[in-house]
Amino acid sequence: MTQARTSPRAVAKRRQIALAARELFLSDGYARTSMDAVTQAAGVSKQTLYAYFPSKEVLLRSVVVDELTGLLAPAERPELRATRENLPEVLFQLARGYLRHLMTPTSIALLRLMIGEAASLGSMRNMFREAVPVHILGDIREFLAELDRRDVVRIPNLDASARMLVGSLMVFVAIDGWMSPDDPVLPSDDMVRTVVGLYLRTLDLPEVTP
User: Per-residue pLDDT tens for 91-123?
Assistant: First the structure.
């Protein structure tokens, strides 16, 4: 059964359903989107839909995870190429990558959907928490832990340091993204470099031996 669900055909079918559901969630809202509407939009039977997604909540969670948590591909391990000399550039690329992913119109629309539904659907609050801040915090914490292990930086409190960096990025996502009445506006590269530079001042950077 596991192999059947991970075959190229099954993966494509799952993606087909998720994409159709995403468009319905964004256009009609979570509450007004029915599983019947998803079957029609995706062009699948109800039996097929429920074989992949046993409930509407599971379907929404999949849509959110696919869109918002695919932030770093497995091959992209920036901490493995970071050195004391290039750390500012590696951190800049990492921060800019997160912002570019989280601040697309589709990502912001999904964030607004989750926030809007959270008041009436308690599970949505936890879904948002797990899909965005907790997920990114985990990634950043692992990134910093590897830097600390390799003595690129010394970080006595990984959790606090990760929260400081993620918090700096989420301010842009919130103020210039889901709270904005207009389309999301990415911060300039100069602004991101400034934020990264300020964050680097909080780290203990061992001196480079000539």
Answer: 999 999 889 988 999 889 988 888 887 777 777
Following DSSP, what letter does each residue of 55-89 receive, concatenated? Answer: SHHHHHHHHHHHHHS--S-TT--GGGT--TTTHHH
pTM above 0.85, yes or no: no
Q: How far apart, in whole angstroms, are the C-alpha atoms of residue 47 and residue 70?
A: 28
Domains of the chain with CATH codes: 8-54 (1.10.10.60), 69-204 (1.10.357.10)
**Long-range Cβ contacts of 95-98 (<8 Å, 24+ apart):** 95/165, 95/169, 95/192, 95/195, 95/196, 96/189, 96/192, 97/71, 97/72, 98/71, 98/136, 98/169
